[in-house]
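Supplementary Note 2. Why include the ligand at all?

Several targets in our set were suspected to adopt different conformations when bound, so apo predictions alone were not considered sufficient. For every target with a known small-molecule partner we therefore ran a joint prediction. The input for flavin-adenine dinucleotide is given below.
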Amino acid sequence: MKKHYDIVVVGAGNAGLSAALQCAVAGKKVLLIEQHNLPGGCATSFRRGRFEFEPSLHELCDIGSAEDPAEIRQMMMDYGVEVDWKEVPDCFRIISKYSDGTPMDVSMPFGCDNFIDKMEYYVPGSRPKMEEYFELLNETMAGTAYISASNGHADSSVLKEKYPNLLRTGAYSVSKVWKAMGLPQKCCDIMSTYWGYLGVDMDRMAFIHYCNMFMKYVSRAAYIPAHTSHEISNAMVERLRELGADIWFNFRAVEFLFDGD
Ligand SMILES: Cc1cc2nc3c(=O)[nH]c(=O)nc-3n(C[C@H](O)[C@H](O)[C@H](O)COP(=O)(O)OP(=O)(O)OC[C@H]3O[C@@H](n4cnc5c(N)ncnc54)[C@H](O)[C@@H]3O)c2cc1C
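The joint prediction is reproduced in token form.
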């Protein structure tokens, strides 16, 4: 290597691209290496015949609207990366069966109030329990935000006083919390839809993880890039090059050598 780099990033998936951009924007000399011949990692697409398949990203949370950007949209703006984000119209549609075997064909909207209203439509009488449930979700989100902001120094007296239900539910699975709250079974069946995103069923998934993901989607909607996942990775690659970073494709890291410095 003739050139000196401050930082070498291995892997041009979205994480590596983001790490490289963070360093390049901060003025570091960056080399990004990728074993594949294109960027994106899991966030990629491929064509078979007249169809283009997206194997992973089908919706992203934390984007937010242009007027009220959430973390990822803001991060891209800070990097100087432009992506044409399109809002996804619904939270989800599920065609399946309820636990009692009756058919289920449900479309749930974004927005906490809209979600509760639609649940009342599908499961009449569920409103009071769902409202109570969203209070718990909001408290859990606020409590975890407090813990994150405290950088490992959360004050237990603040947690007990302000977020007691976070402490009550923190050690339990989603199913246990739903059961303890007495949520109607049909509501639980509908809200179980998102288990696939985290890959763990409701009996084993920690309530806090579920709450975090569920609220990010329901309260702030979801977005996709207008031109497939590669719109994100290509825009990041372009910006990295503008900032003077080098990117080597078809180049696999096989070993890390340290000289003690
Ligand atoms: C089926 C599926 C569905 C998903 N759906 C969504 C969704 O809807 N919304 C969402 O937000 N997220 C979704 N995700 C998650 C999201 O796709 C991933 O979290 C994200 O793309 C991971 O990015 P990454 O950079 O961490 O890892 P990766 O994408 O795995 O990137 C790692 C990169 O490193 C390269 N690499 C590895 N080793 C070396 C080496 N030795 N030398 C050089 N290069 C190397 C690889 O080739 C790869 O390009 C989904 C994931 C899957 C699998």
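The chain has two domains: 7-86+228-248, 92-220. The first strand starts at residue 7 and ends at 10. Comparable summaries for the other entries are listed in the accompanying table.
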